[in-house]
């Protein structure tokens, strides 16, 4: 767990980066410029979390196609099987390069190292349970390809990192305006606390909460 995450009051790492690519400035900057802007956020506070997520996915056994699919889903782009091809890992390597450069502005001797082992145990099972429970709503919101998106989120949790998987799951819910009941909404905040998030990482005002029906 990266120290100081709770002080980052926006969604961080790779999940947070997807939001940067949903902003109105996307057509006015190159992808590399957007990543550089994110890495520089908070005087560089964001760069380490983004680097960690990118390295973790690069070293995971996740298929490159799944990485591309997750990126599109988390940014709210329409499902397009032809757009999730072989460049997912190349994109991650670009992110690593940009973030490493930003960190070296403050620490010239910095060398990226593989991230530590991911969270396992109860938190992993809790995230999987939430993804599976929300599957029908996610599939309905995403429409074509929704089942693949759900499967990809599960793969991230199992094969890469439950922490990143949970943040990408939340980002998909927000991107596709998937409603969650008030009880699930509160539980997501509890899970976020266990992962060490600031409360705005779970909901920045875009997570759709609806009353419980029971």
Order of helices and strands: HHHHHHHHHHEHHE
Share of helix, binned: 55-70%
User: How many helices?
Assistant: 12
**Are there runs of 5+ residues with pLDDT below 50, and where?**
none
Number of strands: 2
Widest beta sheet: strand line-up:
1-2
- Roughly how many Å apart are the termini? 36 Å
Structural class: mainly alpha
How is the biggest beta sheet arranged?
2 strands, parallel
Shape: globular
Domain module tally: 1
In round numbers, the mean pLDDT is 89
Which features characterize this protein?
two-stranded parallel sheet, mainly alpha, 2 strands, 214 residues, 12 helices, 2% strand
Verbal overview:
The chain is mostly helical and 214 residues long. It has one domain (5-210). It has helices spanning 13-20, 31-39, 41-44, 47-59, 64-74, 88-106, 122-133, 135-142, 146-159, 162-175, 182-195, 199-202; strands spanning 180-181, 209-210. Strands 1-2 form a two-stranded parallel sheet. The longest helix has 19 residues, at 88-106.
């Amino acid at each position: 767990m990266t120290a100081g995450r709770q002080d980052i009051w926006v969604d961080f790492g790779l999940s947070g980066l997807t939001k940067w690519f949903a902003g109105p400035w996307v057509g006015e900057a190159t992808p590399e410029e957007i990543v550089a802007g994110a890495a520089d956020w908070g005087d560089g506070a964001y760069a380490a979390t983004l680097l960690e997520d990118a390295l973790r996915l690069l070293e995971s056994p996740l298929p490159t196609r799944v990485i591309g699919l997750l990126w599109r889903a988390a940014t709210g782009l329409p499902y397009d099987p032809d757009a999730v091809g072989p460049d997912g890992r190349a994109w991650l390597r670009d992110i690593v390069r940009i973030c490493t450069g930003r960190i070296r502005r403050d620490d010239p001797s910095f060398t990226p190292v593989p991230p530590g082992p991911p969270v396992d145990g109860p938190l992993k099972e809790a995230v999987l349970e939430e993804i599976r429970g929300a599957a029908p709503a996610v599939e309905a919101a995403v429409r074509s390809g929704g089942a693949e998106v759900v499967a990809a989120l599960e793969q991230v949790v199992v094969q890469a990192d439950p922490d990143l998987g949970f943040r990408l799951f939340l980002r998909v819910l927000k991107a596709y305006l998937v409603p969650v009941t008030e009880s699930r909404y509160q539980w997501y905040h509890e899970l976020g606390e266990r992962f060490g998030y600031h409360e705005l990482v779970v909901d920045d005002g875009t997570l759709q909460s609806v009353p419980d029906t029971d």
